[in-house]
Design a protein that fits this description.
Layout: H1 15-26, H2 33-39, H3 49-58, E1 61-69, H4 70-73, E2 82-86, E3 90-97, E4 101-105, E5 111-115, H5 116-123, E6 125-127, E7 130-140, H6 142-146, H7 158-166, H8 169-201, H9 206-255, H10 258-262, H11 266-274, H12 276-307, H13 309-327, H14 330-356, H15 358-363, H16 367-419, H17 425-466, E8 488-495, E9 506-513, E10 518-523, H18 529-536, E11 544-549, E12 552-553, H19 559-564, E13 566-569, E14 578-579, H20 580-584, H21 593-602, H22 606-611, E15 619-620, H23 629-642, E16 647-651, H24 659-672, E17 677-681, H25 685-688, E18 693-698, E19 701-706, H26 708-714, H27 717-729
Parallel strand pairs: 10-17, 10-18, 13-16, 16-17
Antiparallel strand pairs: 1-7, 2-3, 2-7, 3-4, 4-5, 6-7, 8-9, 8-11, 11-12, 14-15, 18-19
Helix pairs in contact: 1-2, 2-3, 8-9, 8-12, 8-17, 9-12, 11-14, 12-13, 12-17, 13-16, 13-17, 14-16, 14-17, 16-17, 21-23
Length: about 725
């Protein structure tokens, strides 16, 4: 079973899908991690055993979950490989059991053989006096083997990365020329050293020594100048390549469905962005420097071989041992890199949460607890750094002794050759210089091996993003026009958020939203109002039922085109760190001042802008002036109005406004709404009472539908929702 396939989890919550991926591969089927994530109903909290079971059954496995003893686990009745619940918060694969050991494939670490006692510490807990643990047994059915291999999306490998570098051929040619000249200059130095000793010193010719030293000084100045120029070119090329790679990565993020960001921690994405500097280092400085280090090694090696074959053989053998010694440590570096990524990702998320939630932390006096959480992550960082330092020191210590041993033997052979007249003293010094120059390329080669490993690991994590299907796949044609009938119809629409065991948020919803009318959606908190709006905005794909715009399915419309037709104000709307004008006209490079003024008047925010220090050019957001929730909502309303859309979707758009501002804004909006199709989610009676139709949701189902007057007269759920507001109105 040593050939049991192994995959590492790419995110902290990926252990469940990754375990299923390993077992699928073991039985001969390859699935992408993203496919299995979706099948397990992956969420920010990861997956449950039930989610893994349903995903396994989807791809053709028969599953059985059980809580069993260790004796039952090691019996012949247990089908391996199976998935085990680990440390109460993780999943691993048990792929082999021997008399004294349990062989585990841990997606967060590696394949590990545990002694029985060690295994029980991670897997079992005491139930009714017995040590028991949870496992899921999987057996492939005929359906598993009949399923076709899934289509794989193109990924990026190291060779494809070089296309970024080839964009700057002229600069790279200059680098190549500079490195070649530098190599030639370095090659002259050992011959100058030999000449000084064998000619200048032996013949007591001080003028010759002056001449050679002057030449050596000029060569040194030339080499230094080349290094300075090369450094600037490396900076220029490296920066441009890094920007190109990062820009392409961010462009890919923009093409992903919005639901992707609901299941990913911000720290995971930010940490992947941080990985880009390792790829830049691989493509620029390390690759070119290593290439010419190899050239130097070949040239100086030939010269050394001409001088003394024995010393050349010693150098080759010592360097080979040194390289093999360093290669031994690459596997351990790889494991530490994965662990460091996961801890760094959690650290990023923790810091973002700490800074974003600082007001709540202070108000609820929970700073100490949050600080302890952060310190626990730093403790893990310290342990990983300690292990990394120990690994590096062991590698360096062994490499130092190997290198020094090689150098001592070389010096001995060179000195012996001088004593027996096989070499001159000048040639011995030249050989010592050459060996010193040869040691540097060997170190560079080892550095390149480590950089290549880092780049591969970073690419593996980046490809987890690149292989995901775009929101609008290129092979599918989407419509970019609206039908003549712009009414929206929801037919038997049901929706459940990712996460196994979650209850449906919407159940068989049937609604007709007429063109050019105002439709209000009301209901108690958690009844599915916001989810309904998100489905209308194509933030999620419909699961059951369909949404139509006229006679077209909403799924057939381009996401980008549809959202251009929609003006939105969501509960979690975002204010960018930019000027007020740019926050309103977010999609325009050139701001239309007439539309801007109109949007500001409709949102009743003109007085706020007049009082701001720089008017429309006042910076707001996290890096600018703080604004109240009411001002934020008015800016968001102005943004939606400025867009001048066909459709309006408001989710509690005026909930933070005072009664006076709300009355003015609603009067302005009612005029603006004329001829547009509007969907408003709200609790306030003042917002919904003038709607052409009101839809009442309860636990994801439509329970009432009508105008304000008819629904109040019916004294049903709508009446109960607004009863207190009716009394206040009276």
């Amino acid at each position: 079973m040593s050939s049991f396939p192994f995959y590492r989890q790419l995110d902290a919550m990926d252990c469940g899908p990754t375990c299923l991926r390993m077992i699928s591969k073991y039985y001969g089927k390859t699935y992408s991690l993203d496919t299995l994530r979706n099948a397990t109903r992956y969420s920010r909290e990861g997956v449950s055993m039930l989610g893994i079971s349903k995903a396994a059954e989807t791809i053709g496995f028969r599953t059985l979950g059980a809580i069993i003893t260790i004796d039952k686990l090691i019996s012949d009745e247990t089908l391996l490989p199976c998935i085990a619940h680990w440390d109460q918060n993780h999943f691993v694969v048990i792929h082999k059991i021997s008399k004294n050991k349990v062989y585990v494939a841990d997606p967060g670490k590696e394949k590990i053989a545990y002694r029985r006692e060690e295994f029980l510490e991670h897997w079992a807990n005491i139930q009714k006096g017995e040590s028991k643990g949870a496992v899921m047994l999987l057996e492939p059915t005929i359906n598993f083997y009949q399923q076709e291999e899934e289509e794989h999306y193109p990924s990026i490998d190291l060779f494809k990365l070089y296309r970024y570098a080839l964009t700057y051929k002229a600069l790279i040619f200059q680098l190549v020329l500079g490195l070649l000249l530098g190599s030639l200059l370095q090659l002259i130095f050992p011959f100058l050293t030999k000449a000084i000793v064998d000619i200048g010193i032996n013949h007591r010719n001080i003028d010759f020594i002056y001449l050679v030293l002057a030449g050596q000084l000029m060569l040194t100045l030339g080499q230094t100048s080349l290094d300075l120029i090369r450094g600037w070119i490396f900076l220029h090329v490296g920066t441009k390549i890094k920007l190109s790679i990062l820009s392409e990565f961010l462009a890919k993020l923009l093409k992903l469905p919005l639901s992707f960001f609901d299941t990913r921690m911000a720290g995971d994405i930010i940490q992947r962005i941080s990985d880009h500097h390792r790829i830049e280092a691989f493509l620029t400085n390390n690759t070119l420097s290593t290439l010419f280090s190899i050239v130097n090694m070949i040239v100086f090696g030939i010269v050394l071989c001409v001088y003394n074959t024995s010393i050349f053989v010693v150098f080759l053998m010592g360097s080979a041992i040194y390289i093999l010694w360093a290669i031994m440590f690459l596997r351990f570096r790889k494991k530490l890199d994965y662990q460091r990524f996961q801890v760094a990702s959690r650290n990023q998320s923790q810091l973002i949460e700490f800074i974003s939630g600082i007001h709540e932390i202070k108000l609820n006096d929970c700073g100490v607890q949050k600080l302890w959480e952060w310190e626990r992550i730093q403790a893990k960082f310290f342990r990983l750094s300690s292990r990394s330092l120990a690994l590096s020191q062991n590698q360096q210590l062994g490499g130092f002794f190997i290198n020094q041993g090689k150098n001592i033997v070389s010096i001995f052979l060179a000195a012996r050759a001088v004593m027996y007249g096989e070499l001159s003293l000048g040639e011995m010094l030249a050989i010592q210089y050459i060996i010193g120059q040869l040691n540097s390329p060997v170190e560079q080669l080892l550095q390149f091996m480590q950089t290549t490993q880092d780049a591969k690991l970073s690419l593996e994590r980046m490809n987890d993003i690149y292989v995901m299907p775009n929101e609008e796949p290129a092979e599918r044609a989407f419509l970019t026009y609206l039908p003549s009938n712009k009414s929206i119809t929801l037919q038997n629409l049901s929706f459940t958020y990712p996460g196994t065991g979650n209850k449906p948020i919407l159940k068989n919803v049937n609604i007709h939203i007429p063109e050019g009318k105002i439709t209000a959606i009301v209901g108690a908190s958690g009844s599915g109002k916001t989810t309904l709006l998100k489905l209308l905005l194509k933030m999620y794909e419909t699961q059951t039922g369909e949404v139509r715009v006229g006679d077209l399915r909403l799924d057939a419309l381009s996401h980008q085109f549809w959202r251009k037709q929609c003006g939105t104000v969501m509960q979690d709307g975002y204010i960018f760190s930019d000027t007020i004008a740019r926050n309103i006209a977010v999609g325009d490079e050139q701001i239309d001042t007439i539309r801007l003024e109109h949007a500001v008047r409709v949102a009743n925010i003109y007085s706020f802008i007049e009082d701001a220090p720089l008017g429309y050019n006042t910076k707001v957001g996290s890096l600018g002036n703080g604004i109240s929730q009411g001002q934020k909502q008015r800016l968001l309303i102005a943004r939606a109005v400025y867009k001048n859309p066909e459709y309006i979707f408001f989710d509690e758009a005026t909930s933070a406004l005072d009664a006076s501002n709300e009355r003015v804004i609603m009067e302005n909006l009612n005029y603006f709404f004329k001829g547009r199709t509007v969907v408003v989610v709200a609790h306030r009676l003042s917002t919904v009472r003038n709607a052409d139709q009101i839809i009442v949701l309860n636990h994801g189902e439509v329970v009432e539908e009508g105008t304000h007057d008819t629904l109040v007269g019916g004294k049903g759920m709508y009446y109960q929702l607004v009863k207190n507001q009716l009394e206040l109105g009276n």
